[in-house]
Design brief:
- The protein has 2 domains: about 90 residues, no CATH class; about 100 residues, no CATH class.
- A hairpin with a 5-residue loop joins β8 and β9.
- An 8-stranded mixed beta sheet has the order 2-11-5-6-8-9-3-4. A two-stranded antiparallel ribbon has the order 1-12. It has a two-stranded parallel sheet with strand order 7-10.
- α1 crosses α2.
- It has about 230 residues and is of the alpha/beta class.
- It is elongated, with a radius of gyration of 23 Å.
- It is about 30% helix and about 25% strand.
């Protein structure tokens, strides 16, 4: 399906694909508005699946001296979309960018001196709270410094059937077929297997395209520059 397109055209295509409407027929305003709610449910579900999200957004903030905890979200101390997850982060001090290790809540809880202060942040824990997430920084930033956080992109909800939707190649095709499958039971319709197959194959193609190659890392204690390792001592 070409991008951009309106939500109404996507809904109309979805209904036609599964046989809710015939060629040349159009959904009523009530039908389109009901389908819009299902479309937003679909988009919300895609946002929490990291393989459905293309790339990440780098969001800049400035730390507050002596403050280890910040809320992040639409009404947070750091204002942005509420992250589903944080993928990376770095802080800048003296013109140099320092990468920050992303850790879990348990790892942060195991830090014995959480009030330790330093100019450079070494670790950052994210708690996926609601409506705003929580950030825990360690050491506590000693001064106000630039902080850039990489978050998975959050797909924007569609405000109305007239909203213009712009997505990378393949997304609208997937949403049209997947939305049709979701709507079909409400109208007593069974989608053709070909429609289900297209939704499945397009879903897989999108996830393959968004898959990030991961670089393996090892605990320094297990690898020694002299050539010895934990197996040989």
């Amino acid at each position: 399906m070409p991008s951009p397109t309106t939500a109404y055209d996507l809904i109309k295509g979805a209904m036609r694909k599964v046989g809710i409407t015939a060629a040349g027929e159009t959904p009523t305003a009530d039908e389109a508005n009901d389908a819009l709610a299902d479309l937003n449910d679909l988009i919300e579900g895609m946002s929490i699946d990291n393989l459905f999200v293309w790339g990440s957004a780098s969001v800049p903030f400035t730390t507050v001296a002596g403050q280890a905890t910040r809320t992040i979200g639409p009404t947070g101390q750091f204002v942005s979309d509420r992250p589903v997850r944080i993928t990376n982060a770095f802080c800048t001090y003296g013109g140099v960018d320092y990468p920050i290790e992303i850790i879990g809540q348990e790892e942060y809880d195991n830090i014995t001196l959480k009030t330790q202060q330093c100019q450079i942040i070494e670790r950052l824990a994210y708690v996926n709270d609601f409506p705003n997430g929580l950030l825990y920084m360690w050491p506590v930033p000693q001064s106000a410094i630039p902080l850039v956080i990489g978050i998975d992109r959050v797909l924007t909800q569609v405000a109305s059937t007239a909203t213009v939707m712009t997505f990378p190649p393949g997304y609208l095709k997937f949403m049209m077929h997947e939305l049709g499958i979701a709507l079909a039971p409400e109208y007593g319709v069974t989608p053709l297997q070909s429609v289900v197959d297209i939704a499945t194959s397009t879903r897989a193609a999108l996830k393959r395209a968004n898959k990030i190659r991961r670089k393996a890392s090892f605990d320094p204690a297990l690898v020694c520059r002299s050539g010895s390792n934990w197996r040989t001592g």
